[in-house]
Fold:
Amino acid sequence: MFNTLKNPPAFEITIPCDCGTEKICINTYDDMEDYYYLSFYIDSFYACQSVWYVIKDRIKLAWKALRKGNFIFQEMILTSASIKELRDDLNTLLEKEKHEVV
Structure:
């Protein structure tokens, strides 16, 4: 099994959300150059301030799991081709937004 504690990322990008409670990390490792790890993090301290929120959230998650099966992706492993496609799609989105603003 690949142990990330013994092998720190060779490259990492961290993109925090504007509110500061969530972030996306993209990293790759020397041992697995052709794969990129796309991870989603949430700061549970800020996300779950009240007991009511925690109870409501757990009921909601249980209901989704019962009705729809697996519903949360916390980490995705992408190939070089997939990460290039993601890059191209993001660039297309930014170009489209740039033309709409002008």
The chain has a mean pLDDT of 77. The chain has three helices and four strands. Residues 43 and 49 are 11 Å apart (CA to CA). The longest helix spans residues 80-101.
